């Protein structure tokens, strides 16, 4: 009998705006192989309460910049997290922000991104379970810039360096009984080959799913 916890990975196979789930799905499944099974889907109806409730964690890699999840799907995700579900959002998965209720839950919104290139990441919170044991690292990535709301008490876990100073690259907070982590890296499959990023994903998932 498989005693691993269950994760739901949502993304886009057929009509991604910029970030296809192909290839990323296999990497994430490998990262969690020892701790969680990963069910991959592009069906937004998996967010409905009756579907998402069977999972310990949801991972958003949704490329939904042009659309919106429905009010019913939004309510399902809000209820899921507030009642104790874990939500890990990777890179473009923040496109959930098209629903203002979800933007509030996430704690920040994407504004725009400078060009892809080498980024230097610094850990700003070493005692959090998501970043424990991880030191600064450099990787090629698409840098996102965010505007934070004043409505969520969030902990910045990671920053990346720019000409204008450090910018947030990861954060975590609770929402009701649930746990949320956002990790900025993850632009394409090569991102997921970086050891430090893989470790961040694993530890984010374990924290969100309440292994720790």
Automatic annotation (TrEMBL):
Highest taxon of source: Bacteria
A Pfam family it matches: ThuA
Residues in ThuA-like domain copies: 34-208
InterPro entries in the record: Class_I_gatase-like, ThuA-like
Descriptive protein name: ThuA domain-containing protein
Organism: Paenibacillus illinoisensis
Organism classification: Bacteria, Bacillati, Bacillota, Bacilli, Bacillales
